[in-house]
TrEMBL record:
<comment type="similarity">
    <text>Belongs to the THEM4/THEM5 thioesterase family.</text>
</comment>
<keyword id="KW-0053">Apoptosis</keyword>
<dbReference type="GO" id="GO:0006631">
    <property type="term" value="P:fatty acid metabolic process"/>
</dbReference>
<dbReference type="InterPro" id="IPR006683">
    <property type="entry name" value="Thioestr_dom"/>
</dbReference>
<keyword id="KW-0472">Membrane</keyword>
<dbReference type="GO" id="GO:0005737">
    <property type="term" value="C:cytoplasm"/>
</dbReference>
<keyword id="KW-0809">Transit peptide</keyword>
<keyword id="KW-0966">Cell projection</keyword>
<keyword id="KW-0378">Hydrolase</keyword>
<feature type="domain" description="Thioesterase">
    <location>
        <begin position="51"/>
        <end position="133"/>
    </location>
</feature>
<protein>
    <recommendedName>
        <fullName>Acyl-coenzyme A thioesterase THEM4</fullName>
        <ecNumber>3.1.2.2</ecNumber>
    </recommendedName>
</protein>
<dbReference type="GO" id="GO:0016790">
    <property type="term" value="F:thiolester hydrolase activity"/>
</dbReference>
<keyword id="KW-0443">Lipid metabolism</keyword>
<dbReference type="Pfam" id="PF03061">
    <property type="entry name" value="4HBT"/>
</dbReference>
<dbReference type="InterPro" id="IPR029069">
    <property type="entry name" value="HotDog_dom_sf"/>
</dbReference>
<dbReference type="GO" id="GO:0016020">
    <property type="term" value="C:membrane"/>
</dbReference>
<keyword id="KW-1003">Cell membrane</keyword>
């Protein structure tokens, strides 16, 4: 299965760049419809209780995984392999997360994201996060398409 982040160059993202030494290094596996990601929380990723995962960490992995899903789907819609030709880039416009159950720190966090609506300027992405059988978080993300030069200074 394609690992989205392995197909993209020039990615410095804290959440998902393979090359950011301080980042989370998430990997999103794309099957053409759904992108999945498994993330193993560390003990220091805990919330007030050492037993559960910090919500900001959950938001971070959902954010990154969902935006990468939007990017993968957009390449697919254009009939191109991810990372080929002119760069396609989306950024987070809106992130709406419901924290449904505390996520045990033992993890792993298992994410599944799909594009539910795709337009010319934005895509809507739905992302579920499970630990074991428990749905711990559910998110709706608005991914807004920007020029590949968006991040230039
Ligand atoms: C360079 C190489 C990179 C390599 C790959 C790296 C991958 C890394 C992956 C990174 C992963 C990490 C990800 C990160 O961390 S990305 C970093 C966090 N995000 C940001 O910094 C974004 C900051 N905001 C902006 O730049 C602008 O406000 C954006 C670009 C978002 C909109 O700008 P602008 O306002 O000019 O756009 P538009 O008016 O033409 O609207 C276009 C459409 O979008 C809809 N809309 C807009 N805003 C919102 C909103 N807030 N909620 C809902 N919808 C919104 C709007 O209604 C319209 O829809 P429609 O009316 O057409 O239906």
């Amino acid at each position: 299965m394609t690992i989205i982040q392995h197909q993209m160059s020039g990615n410095h993202c804290f959440g998902c760049s393979p090359d950011n030494p301080h980042g989370h290094h998430i990997e999103s596996r794309w099957d053409g419809q759904v992108a999945t990601c498994t993330f193993q929380p560390q003990t220091w990723h805990c919330a007030g209780s050492p037993n559960f995962v910090y919500g900001g960490l959950i938001a971070s992995v959902i954010d990154c995984h969902s935006i990468c899903t939007a990017i993968a789907e957009a390449y697919q819609r254009e009939g191109r392999a991810i990372g080929t030709g002119d760069g396609i880039l989306y950024v987070t416009g809106h992130l709406d997360i419901r924290y449904l159950a505390a996520a045990p720190i033992a993890g792993p966090l298992v994410l599944a994201a799909r594009v539910t609506e795709a337009g010319a300027r934005k895509s809507l992405v739905s992302c579920d996060l499970h630990v074991g059988e428990t749905l711990c978080a559910q998110a709706e993300v608005v991914a807004v398409k920007v020029p590949a030069s968006w991040g230039d200074a």
